[in-house]
Amino acid sequence: MSTLAWTESLVLNNPELDTTHQEFVELLNAFGAALDGGTDALPAYHALLAHTEAHFAMEEDWMARCGFEAQNCHAGQHAMVLNVMREALRYANELNDREPLAILRTELAGWFPQHAEMMDAALVFTMEQVGFDPATGVCRQPITAAAAHGCGSGSCGG
């Protein structure tokens, strides 16, 4: 049984981001399979964490190039997720407590679709509106400071 199924609702029609998201789902499922199989799940978790760090850094680079404020709610959510992931790893390594890893598996599976469908979709929309090309890193027309205040979505209050 997989931890999270890849579905069409996760497709954002941005090839680089869609590929990255598929990889995230695959790594989360590999981590879940290791937990379910009773094998050492730490190698799979390390791969998931490393991928997530690179994934979020890529998105945050795109945000910066499009004119988002450094402290926006999308990047803030990334920071919270990474802090929890790193803390779970610390518990596993320093305290030999693997329970936070199992809890985090479930939490990530619930969090990721919502994040992708709302925050990442808003990022992709903003990138399209300002003519940002992820391949070149060029943004035709960066968003204004007022629009960049939140997550790039007009519905963001942050």
UniProtKB/TrEMBL annotation:
CDD domains referenced in this protein's UniProt entry, alphabetically: Hemerythrin (cd12107)
Family annotation (SUPFAM superfamilies): Hemerythrin-like
Transmembrane segments: none
Domain Hemerythrin-like: 16-122
Pfam families hit by this protein: Hemerythrin
Protein name as catalogued: Hemerythrin
Stored PROSITE patterns: HEMERYTHRINS (PS00550)
Domain of life where this protein originates: Bacteria
InterPro entries on file: Haemerythrin_Fe_BS (IPR016131), Hemerythrin-like (IPR012312), Hemerythrin-like_sf (IPR035938), Hemerythrin_metal-bd (IPR012827)
Molecular function terms, GO-annotated: metal ion binding
Naturally occurring in which organism (per UniProt): Pelomonas aquatica
UniProt keyword list: Iron, Metal-binding
UniProt family annotation: Belongs to the hemerythrin family.
